[in-house]
Design brief:
The protein is mainly α and about 90 residues long. The chain has a domain of about 30 residues. The chain contains one helix and no strands. It is flat.
Length: about 90
């Protein structure tokens, strides 16, 4: 008798879940789709703002000078150690 009762409870829960899923799944999917769309739109707008801010006019010539660096290769780094093989 307990086995039959358990099987009926499992079937009842299964069909109840199936009915609730049919009712609420479209609403949940629409909600997540709207959130995702808003997120992508926000990211796209941020990209467009950054692109427009860095956009330069066509034909402008910009000359950027590189900073002068001192050569440090002439400095003595360390002592040379000569290793010998031992047979």
């Amino acid at each position: 008798m307990a086995l039959l009762k358990t099987i009926l409870i499992v079937l009842l829960v299964y069909y109840l879940f199936k009915i609730l899923a049919k009712l609420f799944a479209p609403k949940i999917i629409n909600y997540t789709a709207k959130k995702t769309e808003a997120h992508f739109k926000e990211q796209f707008d941020n990209f467009n703002r950054q692109h427009k801010a860095s956009e330069e006019r066509v034909g402008d010539v910009i000359i950027e000078k590189k900073p002068t660096k001192k050569n440090t290769s002439s400095e003595k780094v360390g002592d040379y150690i000569d290793f010998e093989e031992i047979d």
